[in-house]
Each structure stands twice: as C-alpha cells, then as structure tokens.
Amino acid sequence: MKPALILLPLVAVLFFASLLIGPAGLGAGESLAALLTGKGGAVVLVMQEIRLPRALLGVMVGAVLGLSGAAMQGYLRNPLAEPGLIGVSSGAALGAVLSLQTGLAAAFSLALPLAALTGAGISVALVLLLAGPRGGALALILAGIALSALSGALTSLVLNLSPNPFAVTEIVYWMMGSLADRSMEHVWLALPFMAGGAVLLLSLGRGLDALTLGEDAAASLGVGLTGLRLRLVLGTAAAVGASVAVAGAVGFVGLVVPHLLRPLVGAQPSRLLPASALGGAAMVLAADVAVRLIAPDQDLKLGVLTAIIGAPFFFHLLWRMRRIEA
Amino acid sequence: MSLLRLETLTVRRGECPVVDGVSLTVGPGEFVGLIGPNGAGKTSLLRGALGLLPVEGGSSLLRLSPKERARAVAFLPQGREIAWPVEVETLVALGRGPHVAAGARGEDQAAVTRALARMGLDGFRSRKATALSGGEQARVLIARALAQETPLLLADEPVAGLDPEAQLRTMEVFTGLAAEGRSVVASIHDLGLAARACSRLVLMARGRVVADGPPRAVLSEENLAQVFGVRGYFAETPDGPVFQPMGLLR
Fold first, then answer.
1. What residue numbers bound the domain in which A267 lies?
2. Domain extent for B197
3. What is the nearest CA distance from A85 to chain B, expressed in angstroms?
4. Tens-digit pLDDT profile for residues B135-174
5. Which residues of A touch B66 (CB under 8 A)?
6. Element at B6 (helix H, strand E)
7. Domain containing residue A257: CATH number
8. Which CATH number belongs to the domain containing residue B58 in this structure?
9. CB-closest option in A206, A266, A268 to B97
10. CB contacts, 8 Å: B67 with chain A
C-alpha cells in the first residue's frame, strides 16, 4: 500500500479542520461558502485573511520540515539527523530576533521574515565556506554545529543586553514558533523559497538511495557527491529558512516524521522524501489545530506543542536503538 | 582493447606515496587477483583508479564522465555499508541506477534476478538487508555490483569473512564473468583461493607492483619470502593448483 494513499487524505482532512476550527466559532458551511464566494462580510475576512493563510502555512511549513529532515537523514545516513543541524534555523532565528530587538520588525509587516531570511542566507554561506567545497558529511555537521552555537549565543546576548522588557517578551514568544496571526503576505513571501528548496530536495532521491551503500559506492554509481551536498544544503537553507521566517522555530517535525514513516516506504530514502513532506504537513496541521482546541484562550504556541509531542518520540527512538545495539 | 589502463598512477597520503607509479593494463576476460600485505596500497590503487582519491598519473577510467564510468566499471568497496533496512531486492537494484532509461524496467528486473541467482540469493529477495548476517550482507553487496553488469568489476576484499561455500561461489562467479569476456580485479588476502581461481596475480608491496603474471610465477618462493615473510607449499592436484602458506620466515 502506498503511504500517499493514507497521507494525502489525512492532509486534506486536517487542512479543512484547520480552516474550520477557531475562536470565531463559525459554521462549516458558512465558512467554506464565504471562503469560496467572497460574500459574507466579517466571515470572509476571518476565512481569507486569518484561517486560510494559517492553514496554508501549516501545510507548507510542515512539508518542508518533513522533507528536509528526510533528506538530511538520508544524506548523513543517520536517523537522528534533523534540518536544524546545518545551522540555518538558528541563523534565521537570530535575524528575526535582531529585527525584533531593533524595532525593525515593527517598521513594516514583512520586516521580520525578511530579516530571518537574511539570517538564513548568511548562515548557509558561512556553512558552505566553513565546510569547504569538497568536504564530506563530517565537515558539514561540525560547521553547522559551530554556527548553531554561535547564533544561539548571539541570540542569548541580544536577550541578555536588551534594555526593553517588551522586546524580550516578544522575542521569547516568537522563538516558541507559531502560525497564529499570519497573513497571505507571509504565504507569498515563503512560497518561492519553500518551492525552490523543495524542488532541490526532491531531486536528491536517486543520490540518497545510492548513499545507502556508502560514499564510495555511491560515487562509483555515478552520483556526484559534491553537487548532491550543495543541493542538499541550499535546498534545506531555502526551505527551512523560509519556514523559520514565517513560523519561528517549530522543532522535532523534521526529526520525528521521517523516522515514523521510514517503515512504510521500505526504508528507501527516495520514497521517504515525498512521504515525509506529506507527513510533516499532517503533523504541523494537526498540532496547529490542537493548540486551538487545547487552550483556545491562551495562545498555546505551536513549537511548544510539537516539542512536547516530539520529545517522547525521540525517547522512544533512543530506547529502540539501545535495544538493538545491546 | 583494454578495460583498464593505469599509467604510472600515484596516490599520495600527505607527502608519502601509498601507490607509487603503478602501470597496469587489464584486458577482457581476465580475473586479476590483487595481492599483497596490509598497507601495500591495494585499496588505494582501486580507489585511485576510480577517481575516488586524488591521483597523479593516468587511469583510463578517469577519462570517462561519472555516468559513463558507472556503466564501464562497478566497484565493491571494502567497507560493507548498508545504511537503511531496505529489502535485498531494492538494494541489489541500486546497481541498475547508472542504466536508467525509459522503458527498461523489465531489463533492470532481469539483471537483478540474474545477480541474485548468481550469488545464490534467490530466497533472500524480500528479506531486510540489515537483518542478514555479515556474510550474507557481503553476498548481497556483491550481487549489487553484479547487477550493474559492467565490463569491469573492481572488488576490494570481496571474499573476506565469507564461509567456504560463499567464498568458492564468489570466486566461481568471478571466473564465470571472465569466461564471458568481462574482467574482475579483486584484492584478496587468501593466497590459496587466489592461486586457484585467478587467471593472473598482481603482487603489491609498499605501493609498487612487485610481480605480475600467472599465479604459479607470482607466488614464487622468493616473492613470498620478500613480500610476505612466509614460506609456502605449492602443488598441482587433479582439482587444480593448491597453495598453502606454511610458516613464518622472520
């Protein structure tokens, strides 16, 4: 059975759930009619300006996180790898934090995501520079870890020295990751980066399959490892950078989703890529619906929930690895 | 027409040459055993010839594009890596990667079936590759290289860690390839197996080719003493040549 046959309907159902569930308490028929026809006053506003971008971003953010997680695990041949490993997420977060701290974020509506994208761009350039043009997987991981640590330290420094407690609060909340109160502008800004990144990542399938046999065997099968790594890094940077720019840090999706779906695709990296994109979309949509249902009045953050759900999966993964290795 | 031609190939690790000006030509229908003590440069020679290490000098394979090379030569690395629990059939089919062409699925499946049959793995088709024993995994990986169906196969210690049946079967498969006009270059530590099955032995020591020729000539008392520091027993039997290292000389 193809996993897409389960995952596609699941994503569709969750997408509609995301459209139909919210504090405004609108009827389902009324909401969808308003969304499609554009007639109905305030309902149209809620549907087109609030619910639709939120649901769309849920799909997009989840899909790229799942996809880049699967690509990263395939490249490093390690089920514990995740997209944040190359330092782009923390670089994007630093860009966003700086824009909040300096007040730039308030200047115009897309200032924060643009600052985050800039941060992602700078960090991917630094990672590629540090890891070298022909370096292997290890150089890439070390460069990513070093950059993540630096970005994290600089983010802490901003918080530490911030004279403005409101900015600190805002930064802390932003870093928890959320899809609330995003607009279609966010969708249009993120879409080209995510689509471009996804195209790059989906093109890696055959190379990642060959890497199952190790780097030497893959190279002898005609896979260009230097180009493969470059496409992986650029694709992940574009997709995940844009994801952090519009949603903040949403953790564990890129780690857990590929791991959960791997048995369904016979562990084949090329088949895991599209499956993880769908699975990631489903997980983020579900979590984003859940934050609205669990605490409708309290603005529970999406990233907090994915981490609370994700961490136990991580324990499970470690537990199983220990059992196998023992 | 040669399938592999190395011209004063040199591979350096830092300043020190681990392969030192090796020239070698392999024609069709040869089963070449690459022998020599640990650290003689066998693995570096194979990897250098394939362009997996930076080299000086020439290798005919380096003049091909990566895609052409993958259709000209298959490589079986020494490290037997299977990263994910994929099915044996899927893993062996990776050897078909360089042959992707529209409408060739049937041909690919036939090649996978032939490779599995050659390695005696028919019953393993839908087993998880990572759940197999080390020796079985090694056979699956050989089948992967066979499925590539290239004129030349470079194999780095293909029979290490295999049981006697699998060792003999693998050597027979390689002899069979040579009989079809394809060629195999395999590094082998078991001199007895190499003496029996290979049509030609290339003896390496400290990065250089010390001897190159028919097994009986290469495994001379003098070569064995100088390169391996052992003495051996050589006999012709009705089952073919037998060679056994007998004792240490130093």
1. 3-325
2. 4-248
3. 19
4. 899 999 999 999 999 999 999 999 998 999 999 999 999 9
5. 219, 222-224
6. strand B4-13
7. 1.10.3470.10
8. 3.40.50.300
9. A206
10. 222
